[in-house]
Amino acid sequence: MAEERAGLEERIIIKDQHTKEIDLVNRDPKHINEDVVKVDFEDVIAEPVGTYSFDGVWKASYTTFTVSKYWCYRLLSAVLGIPLAVVWGFLFALISFCHIWAVVPCIKSYLIEIQCVSRIYSLCIHTFCDPFFEALSKICSNIRVALRKEI
Length: 151
What we know:
Radius of gyration: 34 Å
Helix content: over 70%
Shape: flat
Mean pLDDT: 86
Structural class: mainly alpha
Order of helices and strands: HHH
Distance between the termini: 89 Å
Largest sheet: none
């Protein structure tokens, strides 16, 4: 009974990953583009004091900038959004595939092979270096240093 429930929960979790609802209000929940694409009219165009254009020109410029930026983005995302989503999906699938089927097995294989080298290296260190440094420590153990301050 417990195995059936665990299998059912696993199928529900797997199904939820592919059919989850998309939040159409908050489209950047992890804030990955928070500091990148916030470009407003005031960030691009500014008139210093003493060189003002007509108020109507300034308002029309603001409206033109804002509306053209909005509709150009919408048009570009409508035309290129889905093809680029396919490209990025393919790229991340390829990266995941390479990581799962090539990188991790190579690392595991390397770690298995390096264990043999590690044992040989450890044996050499303990055989040759340990006695040398023990003898050196016994030689240097009788050295005494005295510091005196003479005025």
